[in-house]
């Protein structure tokens, strides 16, 4: 059904005059008359009773008028929502993330995104790097925040944040009073780390840096979540290394200390499918880049 014909009919039904309806629709009277006639032929019954000096609705026309209004209203709403979806104003966005971003950039990213695009429904998926890559490829998530390196040619990525790992030691530990440490000074310390089966980028960097200092970390406890590792540090069970932005969120009885000569940075990237048709991905990526840049300018805690 041609929506233009419905609009012309509604104008005539409300004005009860073809000339005034034509003025209202900014067309010639013959165009209005022709389109209403075509609508009546399409429906198979008369909507208007016409005479030389009068126009009035037929009984079917009286019944059809509110339905036509509702149909036009819903059509207008559908077009408005489709346009909003096309520019990312409304819609859905599925976001994957590694757990250390919960301590840093993810909360302010989500806050700023919701303030700017409150009608985009967000779903969050805590996933490790390899799981995120697969989830992007299978469209389970639209965008992921994960450690580098880049996931490869099939996906696009952009750097969000990069910085060294820093030591997390229990409060009251002899090293806790130091302003900086060398990685070699941790050689005799018990470590709490991610399990090797997770293929954690943080673990890769820790093991490589310890090896460059001539030792392998003595692992006494393992945990799959960063907050669990820090709880173990707080309990005095060992030390660990964390991204520097984690120090911005205070953990009870944990002291953060920068490391000298730790050259391998830990990098966070945003990754997405370049063939995505979800405009919210672009909006989220812009917010993420902006927030991550601001975060790195803030001072670290102890």
Automatic annotation (TrEMBL):
The record, for InterPro entries, names: LysR_HTH_N (IPR000847), LysR_subst-bd (IPR005119), WH-like_DNA-bd_sf (IPR036388), WH_DNA-bd_sf (IPR036390)
Give the CC-aspect GO terms.
Answer: protein-DNA complex
Give the Gene Ontology MF terms in alphabetical order: DNA binding; DNA-binding transcription factor activity
Q: Which Pfam families match?
A: HTH_1, LysR_substrate
Its keywords, alphabetically, are: DNA-binding, Transcription, Transcription regulation
Regarding protein family, the annotation reads: Belongs to the LysR transcriptional regulatory family.
Q: What is this protein called?
A: HTH-type transcriptional regulator GltC
């Amino acid at each position: 059904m041609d929506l233009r014909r419905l609009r012309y009919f509604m104008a005539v039904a409300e004005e009860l005059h073809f000339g005034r309806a034509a003025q209202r629709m900014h067309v010639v009277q013959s165009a209005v008359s022709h389109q209403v006639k075509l609508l009546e032929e399409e429906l198979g019954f008369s909507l208007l009773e016409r005479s030389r000096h009068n126009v009035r609705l037929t009984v079917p026309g009286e019944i059809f008028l509110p339905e036509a209004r509702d149909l036009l209203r819903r059509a207008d709403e559908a077009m408005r929502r489709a346009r909003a979806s096309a520019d990312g104003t409304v819609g859905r966005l599925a976001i994957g993330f590694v757990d250390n971003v919960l301590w840093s950039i993810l909360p302010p990213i989500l806050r700023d995104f919701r303030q700017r695009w409150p009608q985009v429904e967000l779903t969050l998926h805590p996933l490790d790097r390899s799981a995120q890559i697969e989830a992007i490829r299978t469209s389970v998530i639209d965008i992921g925040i994960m450690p580098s390196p880049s996931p490869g040619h099939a996906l696009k990525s952009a750097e969000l944040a990069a910085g060294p790992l820093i030591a997390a030691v229990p409060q009251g530990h002899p090293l806790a009073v130091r302003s900086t440490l060398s990685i070699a000074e941790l050689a005799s310390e018990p470590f709490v780390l991610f399990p090797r089966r997770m293929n954690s980028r943080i673990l890769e960097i820790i093991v490589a840096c310890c090896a460059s200092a001539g030792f392998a970390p003595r692992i006494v406890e393992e945990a799959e979540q960063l907050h669990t590792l820090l709880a173990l540090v707080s309990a005095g069970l060992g030390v660990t290394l964390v991204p520097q932005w984690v120090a911005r969120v205070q953990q009870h009885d944990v002291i953060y200390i920068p490391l000298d000569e730790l050259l391998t940075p830990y990098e966070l990237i945003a990754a997405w499918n370049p063939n995505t048709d979800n405009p919210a991905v672009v909006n989220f990526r812009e917010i993420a880049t902006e927030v991550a840049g601001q975060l790195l300018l803030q001072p670290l805690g102890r």
